[in-house]
Amino acid sequence: IGGHGDLFFTQEELNAILAEVQGAGWQAGIHALGDRAVEETQNAIAAALNGQPNT
Questions:
Q1: Is 4 a domain residue?
Q2: Cα separations in angstroms, 14 against 2, 36, 38, 42
Q3: CB-facing half-sphere around the CA of 55: CA atoms within 13 A
Q4: Model confidence at 1, in pLDDT bands (50, 70, 90)?
Q5: Alpha carbon separation from 53 to 1, 3, 26, 27 (Å, rounded)
Q6: Which contacts of 21-30 are long-range, i.e. CB under 8 A and separated by 24 or more positions?
Q7: Contact by Cβ (8 Å): 18, 10
Q8: What residues make up the domain containing 34?
Q9: Is residue 39 in a domain?
């Protein structure tokens, strides 16, 4: 049971979206349900914040 689901964005797309959001100085509102979605969201947030201050 479990172990799969439907993701709206690929990891690469989500990374690009969050990098653009971070670069614009905006905050992102994200809904992630399930282990895989949460993990990919965390990965994208970490990539977007890499080397940038959290202000």
A1: no
A2: 23, 13, 12, 10
A3: 8
A4: low
A5: 40, 34, 13, 14
A6: 21/48, 22/48, 22/49, 22/52
A7: no
A8: 11-49
A9: yes
